[in-house]
Amino acid sequence: MAAIRTDNLTKSFRVRQPEPADGALLRRLLRRAPAIDLLAVQDLSLQIEPSERVAFIGPNGAGKSTSLKMLTGILVPTSGHAEVAGFVPWRDRGKLARHIGIVFGQRSQLWWQLPVRASLDLLGQIYDVDRTVLRQRMARLIDGFEIGAFIDRPVAQLSLGQRLRCEIVGALIHAPSILLLDEPTIGLDVTSKALLRDHLDGLSRDSGTTVLLTSHDTGDIERICERVIVIDHGSLLMDLPIAQLKRDFLRRRTVTLVTAQETPELRIDGVAAVAVEPYRLTLSVDTTVVPIEKVVATALERLTIRDLSVENPPLEDVIKAIYRGETADPRASKGPAGATQL
Amino acid sequence: MQLSSNSSALRAFARIGWRRAAAEPLATAARGGLNVLALGIFWAFWRATPLAELRRPELTPERLIWYLAVTEWIVFSTGIPYREIEDDIRSGALATNLTRPIDYARACCAQWCGGIAFRLPIFALVGFVAALGLSGTVPIDPAMLLAGLASVLLALAILHLCHLMIGLATIWTGSAAPLHWIWQKGLFVLGGLIIPLSLYPAPFRRFAENSPFAAMLSAPASLALDPSPGHAIAVLRLQLIWLIVLAGMAWLTDRAAIARFLERGT
To answer: Which of B97, B106, B229, B253 is the most exposed place for a label (fewest CB within 10 A)?
Structure first.
């Protein structure tokens, strides 16, 4: 049985167009504006097997969150069918809740006034987890996600990165077989993102939890997922293994070096200088030719580095490239300094 | 299994309500201070009022201050719980709550029960000590205390059902504040927050006494003015009728509101 399956899932919203402001007040008050149907998701069919780790990506307004809401049962589709862990989400919402864990990056399921430990303990009771099992599981998750240092602090006093790790622990407290993550790293700094990705990657590998992740960050997708589903305008655009996405669309990285040398220079196969400024060198790296680690190691060896950053191509650029039906050629396009285009 | 799961979850939510209420000691202290201040002001007011001219033996400053102590006890123990639902709806937290294995409205009610369990004894202590200190008497027969307590609990249940409906109305109106404002004025005027309904002119009194607002405030407080068993039975009957009616309305509102939310996503 598939962990998640949708057949022609469609959702449209009926909205009323605002009346022009120059109309008579009385007419605007009495007459209802004409309604139009906005199609958010259209005939979405997909299947995700147990233990798969899938990224669900698309630009803003593509229909990701709407789809995720339907899969969690908090939105009823206009037509089509879906099954998650064997349940029809919008019909069996209460039963499904015991089989899925959900993290909305911009919303909290923890109680702000309470210490994290109390919140987790209460979540365990809400999901009716046996006390002994809860204690053991909490100990494992606290250790695994490294939240022990601030477990007794109120949620309101945590940094965003700390809170998101706690949110994920909260979502896993009832040992769900499916974990749904909606922008779990949004707003995090580079270090917190890396830490969270490592934890999620380790968790899904160790426990065999099915992961469905939406993110705007290509780094999340690369690190955690093995398959990518791309949607746009509510329709499935592409369904491909992460290896293929990497090979075809995520092959370029932008490396920015701040150096002690006034006119830095670095010649490596597969690396093109995008911008050369005093004490700063921006490189475009084709990772299919040379791994990023080798570029960094060579730069450290040949130059005196004061600062270094590695950037992934923005998701919007990946989507644009998919639309164009092209695979990225590092020599084909050059964007402005610091930017990466496919 | 489902029943035990639900009761475990409800207990957990009640505990959350208790802990959240306990996490606001300053707010509790401020309410307690306001409670005492209101009782002090109205004690002076009733003593300066020529109540004897009304020729109503039950309307003495001592009984009226206990009437106010009971209505204030109910109001301060309640707070403004509709705001929690309004916040959940407006912030999108309702979506998170709906992904839990427990009905949202029941979870809210359980949480409110926890908050009441924390605040009710505190405000009883504060208000009753103040009323006793001011009036020097307790105008209710100890045998009737149980009926009084039952009446206060019924009043709180009815009040919270109203808050549930007002909060859920946010799904249609986008803001529950205007509806709460109207309801609050109704409670003030028709509920007899400060002045007993028995002082109202006859036609208004009959209307007010049979309204749900009376069942929330005036009815339990009126036991301080008339602590007879016959009046207690009439009070409890009125409250039970309104509890059943409002529970039905709250159930329908909840179903309609959640269905609308699940359809529209907001």
So the answer is: B229
**What is the C-alpha separation between A307 and A278, in angstroms, rounded?**
14
Mean pLDDT of all residues in chain A?
A: 84
Sheet with A210-214: strands ordered across: A100-104, A178-182, A210-214, A53-57, A227-232, A235-241
Is A126 in contact with B103 (Cβ distance < 8 A)?
no
Which structural domain, as residue segments, surrounds residue A304? 252-338
* Chain A residues within 8 A of B26 when measuring between CB atoms: none
Helices (H) and strands (E) in chain A, counts: 11, 13
Q: Which residues numbered 43-82 in A keep a CB inside 8 Å of some CB on B?
A: 66, 69, 72-76
Domain end, chosen from A189, A224, A247, is at: A247
Confidence of residue A246 (pLDDT cuts 50, 70, 90): confident
Selection from A111, A127, A117 nearest residue B20 by Cα: A111
DSSP A75: S
DSSP string, A290-341: S-HHHHHHHHHHHS-EEEEEEEPPPHHHHHHHHHHT----TTT---STT---
Query: What total of structural domains would you count in chain A?
Result: 2
Say how far residue A50 (Cα) sits from the centre of its chain.
19
Better pLDDT: B176 or B139? B176
Give the tens place of pLDDT for each residue, B86-125: 999 998 889 989 999 999 999 999 999 999 999 999 999 9
* Cα R_g (chain A), whole angstroms: 23
Tell me what ipTM this predicted complex has: 0.81
Verify whether the Cβ–Cβ distance B100 to A97 is below 8 Å: yes
| A31 and A13 both lie in a single domain | yes
- Residue percentage of chain A with pLDDT more than 70: 90
Does A173 lie in the same domain as A69? yes
